[in-house]
Amino acid sequence: MSKRFAMKLSTPEHAAPADAIARKSLPPVICYPVTTLPRPDLAAYRASWAGAEKIGEVIVPPRDGACFHVKAGQFFRISSIEGAQVGDLNLWSADLSERFYSGKTRALHGTHLSSGDRFWSSLPSLRPMATIIDDSLDWYGVDPDGGSVHDVIGTRCDPYTHALLSDGGQYHHCCHSNLTRALAAETGMSLAEAETQVHDVFNIFMCTGFTRDTGQYFMKASPVRPGDYMDIFAEIDLLGALSACPGGDCSSEHSSDSAACYPLKVEIFAASEPPRGWEPSARNSYDRSHGL
Q1: Which terminus, N or C, of the chain has the lesser number of Cβ atoms within 10 Å?
Q2: What confidence tier does 8 reach under pLDDT thresholds 50, 70, 90?
Q3: Kind and range of the H or E element at 195?
């Protein structure tokens, strides 16, 4: 493989045109202005959460995955319990007809999510699946490297990319495989069937960004510590799968048996009263005629 394809060129091959500065000076335009997008009433969500009682718990083992169920109107908390550990989250509607759409979530909310942001479902439903109501790492913000926590830009570590970059190496505890095994075990699907349902993830607790010189996706040591958490409200009936990434805190590598890895905990809570004025989210109102 030539260096051209192995990495981005450090110097351009073509001379800049006379109006290069003018072209570069044009202002950016936000693709999807969200001023008309209804914002969740966090005060109402949190008031409901304050009276919620724990009804279930799942421990996700290190370098492995596990599934959990949450009904519409319930809450779930994902937390670090023993050491710095990141997780890869997939969400589906309970009937598997919808899945988390990380690309559209990123387009609407940005590269990293926190309180008040939502997980949007795949087309044609495109509706809120869940809403983040609290994030103990919201203090982190954006660091000097441009890194931030909880991203929707990474895809998930997977055995195919590992094989590609390691001259055919075989590794079976990447997050993609962890999620595949967990979904197969939960639903009775074959591994082949389950793998087609696994999708781009929400990287909870992971610290990531893009390098300023080459624009490459980077990771760095997560600031997560035992006791850190994210609280999420289910807008529809959900099936979730969470992988405790084999990279641990992702300070050095993923797809690794050498990184220190720890379990993650998922707790399910039911409130005595739903948030004030809340109703399960409706499917997208587009008529699906596509101009015909």
Answers
A1: C
A2: low
A3: helix 191-197
